[in-house]
């Protein structure tokens, strides 16, 4: 019996006897109203253990044979396909070829192999800015929502659909993103305004569109997906970057035009509103203040950091679980953030301030997670200490 399994990157049309262990990382039904609105296709993105991906398609008549056996996120042993060129205006992966299921295609669930990677592969905002024309390959992107504008419904193949324009921040830059159709339901103002800071958004399988003076992102109906504050490792990795953690983002609020906006760092500052510490001590009201002073002391306290979920809420560790009601009963992925108390002097007055994550990241030149790694390097723990 031949137990050899092929790598996805090796697949070509010059053989039919391919055998692959793959995870279904994305699965969607799609009709093309411009061609044949009655023709339904089931598309998948498959990924192997080397994280190489290929797109697969099941034609309308074969969908009942396979649909009940396929679940997004599960791993399968698949054999016997037709291999064809990967063409089209909206290609979800960059593999040269794609797979077409046949009557004899075999799909067997595999429980002994795990492929934990989500399959997301983010394109940087610098790469997006370098594009000068529409791209046929769809991309994944992650950023912070800094603007939301509802547009009037637009016509699409005889139907009126919703439209929302987003402004998304990543690594010091912003990009416009147009969202159409049912995906707009996630972008309702009331839903977006309930979080303590602006939201992280993951855009999966979006199209890069060239516009005058630059580029923008746009969803493809029934193909693209967006996720708000997803509890995944990629969210934590993005928010823990210095180029993101060193920025402060306000809660989304409605501006005078009725749009949602989030202020980013320098947008907060108004030199005309600078107060001295004496005035701050005399004011009992809550609000935003700008003060000048000298940090004289960083308080030496054990609780200089805390756990946070992707949403920005403080979470509590309890028996290897992270719990907070605002995000659900159990959170799987958390990050560490600064919460450092400092004593600031000015004009003979001293006040204790708490430097939260973005301010402390700027001050120390490293994120809280980087600080933890530095501590582990400088003060390694002797494993014998934990020996029983």
TrEMBL record:
Q: What CDD domains has UniProt attached to this entry?
A: RPA1_DBD_A_like
Q: Which Pfam families match?
A: DUF223
Domain Replication protein A 70 kDa DNA-binding subunit B/D first OB fold residues, every copy: 7-108
Which InterPro entries did the record assign?
A: NA-bd_OB-fold, RFA1B/D_OB_1st
Name of protein: Replication protein A 70 kDa DNA-binding subunit B/D first OB fold domain-containing protein
Q: What is the lineage of its organism?
A: Eukaryota, Viridiplantae, Streptophyta, Embryophyta, Tracheophyta
């Amino acid at each position: 019996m031949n137990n050899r399994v092929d790598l996805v990157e090796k697949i070509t049309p010059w053989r039919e006897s391919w055998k692959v262990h793959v995870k279904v990382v994305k699965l969607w039904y799609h009709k093309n109203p411009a061609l044949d609105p009655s023709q339904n296709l089931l598309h998948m993105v498959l990924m192997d253990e080397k994280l190489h991906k290929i797109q697969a398609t099941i034609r309308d008549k074969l969908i009942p044979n396979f649909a009940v056996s396929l679940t997004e996120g599960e791993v399968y042993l698949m054999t016997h396909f037709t291999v064809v060129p990967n063409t089209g205006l909206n290609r979800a992966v960059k593999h040269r070829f794609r797979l077409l299921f046949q009557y004899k295609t075999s799909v067997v669930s595999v429980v002994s192999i795990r492929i934990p990677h989500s399959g997301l592969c983010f394109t940087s905002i610098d790469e997006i800015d370098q594009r000068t024309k529409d791209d046929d390959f769809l991309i994944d992107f992650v950023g912070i929502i800094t603007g939301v504008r509802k547009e009037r419904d637009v016509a699409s193949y005889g139907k009126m659909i919703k439209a929302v324009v987003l402004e998304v921040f990543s690594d010091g830059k912003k990009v416009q993103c147009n969202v159409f159709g049912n995906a707009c339901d996630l972008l309702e103002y009331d839903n977006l305004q309930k979080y303590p800071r602006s939201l992280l958004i993951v855009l999966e399988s979006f199209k890069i569109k060239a516009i005058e003076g630059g580029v923008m992102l746009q969803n493809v109906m029934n193909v693209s997906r967006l996720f708000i504050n997803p509890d995944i490792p990629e969210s934590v990795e993005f928010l823990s970057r210095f180029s993101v953690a060193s920025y402060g983002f306000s809660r989304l609020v409605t501006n005078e035009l009725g749009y949602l906006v989030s202020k980013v760092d320098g947008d907060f500052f108004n030199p005309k509103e600078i107060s001295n510490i004496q005035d701050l001590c005399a004011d009992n009201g809550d609000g935003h203040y700008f003060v000048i002073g000298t940090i004289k002391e960083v308080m030496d306290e054990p609780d200089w950091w805390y756990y946070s979920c992707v949403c920005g809420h403080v979470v509590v560790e309890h028996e290897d679980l992270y719990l907070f009601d605002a995000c659900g009963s159990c959170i799987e992925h958390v990050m560490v953030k600064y919460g450092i108390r400092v004593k600031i002097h000015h004009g003979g007055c001293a006040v204790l301030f708490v430097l939260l994550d973005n301010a402390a990241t700027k001050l120390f030149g490293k994120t809280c997670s980087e600080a933890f790694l530095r501590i582990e390097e400088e003060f390694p723990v002797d494993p014998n200490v934990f020996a029983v």
